[in-house]
Design a protein that fits this description.
The complex is a heterodimer of chains A (about 130) and B (about 240). Helix content of chain A is about 60%, strand content about 0%. Chain A has about 130 residues and is mostly helical. In chain A, α1 runs antiparallel to α2. With about 240 residues, chain B is mainly alpha-helical. Chain B has a two-stranded antiparallel ribbon with strand order 1-2. The longest helix of chain B has about 35 residues. Classes of the chains: A mainly alpha (about 130), B mainly alpha (about 240).
Chain lengths: ~130, ~240
């Protein structure tokens, strides 16, 4: 098979290192979620950046893309490129609309967006 | 092989005339080598995984849109999810990914017993994941944190005309849709892993034929990869 340079010990060590890196990154992302980086958007960027690093580690080492035939990486990358296109055009559309929801939706969905209404003046009575 | 007439005298199951590996029963006659056969299977699996990325991608994009539409409600709804449980499930899935890749390595190095043990640990991790999810779901059901018009939770901050803002129900529609679809993938994964474990136990895999182990491994890592994005988006961002 393609594994003519098979070295089980070295591979097992790589997998263990990958797992440890993934666990450390998980701890970092949980810890970072308790810190406020100025704005909500900054926290989203931090969380998604760490998630992308983790996903890349999984794809490169656990899914063998690093040493695999390039065509597999090409297919994987194509999936994400098309997802990116989908996200980009949807965002362009969404951001340039005054009201992103259709006007003929039934019920309370057609009520004005929450920005126009202030939070309920008195919180609902709590039951203890 | 290149003659246009079909030789009817030849037994269709007799592959001796095809110049194949007579020693490997897994080698199908339309592939030149075992390596080509393996690579072909793998490309097919990657194509499937790309469609999976797009399947979940649609839900992620929808979630992003609704988060932009109802930022305050989503922020508040996030707080109903328990971070420690999400983190626990993340660790469980990451460990299961590692046992999976160790299982593939065991298959490739003809270690039958190790393969089966690693696959069983992977299945156990998947069961722990689903157990935690069951606990989380029943908690949500009790509090009325349900999708769409099933939403019954009271005491939400943003009220419109005396009703909870639709943003809350929207959040939980996405939550149950995405974690539910992911959970179905875990269930399918458990079935596949059990199938591979049974076959592995029978000694069907070795260094020259372990394609099913490798492909189920790829599937399992993708399920892990999707959770890697679900976890921060649902549990961490607030």
């Amino acid at each position: 098979m393609s594994e003519h340079t098979l070295n089980p010990k070295a591979e097992a060590a790589t997998y263990l290192k990958t797992l440890i890196a993934l666990l450390i990154l998980t701890a970092i992302t949980v810890g970072a979620s308790y810190i406020h980086f100025g704005s909500g958007a900054a926290n989203v960027v931090v969380a998604l950046t760490i998630a992308t690093i983790k996903a890349t580690l999984v794809a490169l080492f656990f899914m063998h893309l690093l040493h695999d035939k390039p065509v597999n990486a090409l297919i994987a990358a194509a999936g994400f490129v098309f997802l990116g296109l989908f996200l980009m055009f949807t965002l362009l559309d969404f951001d340039t609309r005054e009201n992103p929801l259709p006007r003929n939706l039934p019920g309370m969905v057609t009520t004005p967006p929450p920005a126009a209404t202030s939070p309920a003046p008195a919180p609902a009575p709590e039951h203890h | 092989m290149s003659t246009s007439t079909v030789d009817l005298t030849q037994d269709p199951h007799d592959h001796s005339g095809h110049g194949e590996h007579p020693d490997d029963p897994h080698h199908q006659h339309h592939f030149t080598t075992m390596e080509q056969q393996f690579d072909t299977s793998k490309i097919g699996m990657w194509l499937f995984l790309a469609t999976e990325v797009l399947l979940f991608g649609g839900l992620f994009v929808g979630f992003g849109m609704m988060q932009a539409r109802f930022p305050e409600e989503f922020k508040e709804a996030h707080e109903h999810l328990q971070r420690p449980l999400g983190a626990l499930n993340t660790v469980v899935l990451l460990v299961s990914s590692w046992t999976m890749v160790m299982g593939v390595l065991a298959a490739r190095t003809n270690q039958r017993k190790k393969l089966v043990i690693f696959l069983i640990i992977t299945i156990l991790c998947a069961c722990i994941f689903l157990g935690v999810k069951y606990f989380e779901y029943s908690h949500k059901f009790e509090e009325g944190l349900l999708p769409g018009h099933f939403y019954k939770h009271v005491g939400d901050r943003i009220q419109i005309n005396g009703h909870a803002s639709p943003g809350y129900a929207t959040f939980f529609s996405f939550y149950f849709m995405m974690t539910g679809l992911h959970g179905i993938h875990i269930l399918v994964g458990i079935a596949l892993l059990a199938w591979i474990a049974v076959r592995g136990n029978r000694g069907e895999f070795n260094s020259s034929y372990y394609t099913p182990v490798d492909l189920v491994g790829l599937y399992w890592h993708l399920v892990d990869l999707i959770w890697i994005y679900l976890f921060p988006l649902y549990y961490l961002i607030s």
